[in-house]
């Protein structure tokens, strides 16, 4: 895998479908989408679960952690990344 597209998120269930749709439109496919949920209290987890189940196009990896701030979410994403390159794509 060449690229890890990383999205840290917190209570952004309403915005994440836009990110997903954008990634699905990409013609370059050698990437994974890593999402670290920093303790969201909205429907983020169930939304991502649904995207993973319904998805036939992207490699999606989801991690949930207790709320600790964006810097901790980024650190977790870097550790989980399998790509050679790491791109942060915020949820908004």
Q: What percent of residues adopt helix (DSSP H or I)?
A: 25-40%
Please summarize the sheet with the most strands.
4 strands, parallel
Question: What is the number of E strands?
Answer: 4
Uncertain stretches: none
Radius of gyration: 12 Å
Alpha-carbon distance between the two ends? 25 Å
What is the structural class? Answer: alpha/beta
Q: What does the overall shape look like?
A: globular
Can you walk me through this structure?
The chain has 92 residues and is of the alpha/beta class. Helices cover 34% and strands 26% of the residues. The chain has 3 helices and 4 strands; from the N terminus they run βαβαβαβ. The chain has helices at 16-24, 44-54, 70-80, and strands at residues 3-9, 31-37, 59-64, 85-88. A 4-stranded parallel beta sheet has the order 3-2-1-4, sandwiched between helices. Strand 2 (31-37), helix 2 (44-54) and strand 3 (59-64) form a beta-alpha-beta unit. It is globular and about 35 Å long. The chain starts with a strand and ends with a strand. The model has no long low-confidence stretch (mean pLDDT 96).
């Amino acid at each position: 895998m060449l690229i890890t597209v990383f999205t840290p998120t917190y209570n952004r269930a309403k915005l994440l479908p836009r990110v997903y749709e954008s990634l699905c439109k990409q013609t370059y496919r050698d990437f994974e989408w890593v999402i670290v949920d920093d303790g969201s209290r909205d429907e983020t987890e169930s939304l991502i679960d649904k995207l993973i189940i319904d998805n036939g196009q992207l490699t999606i990896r989801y991690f949930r952690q207790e709320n600790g701030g964006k810097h901790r979410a980024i650190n977790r994403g870097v550790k989980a990344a399998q790509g050679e390159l790491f791109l942060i794509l915020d949820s908004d």
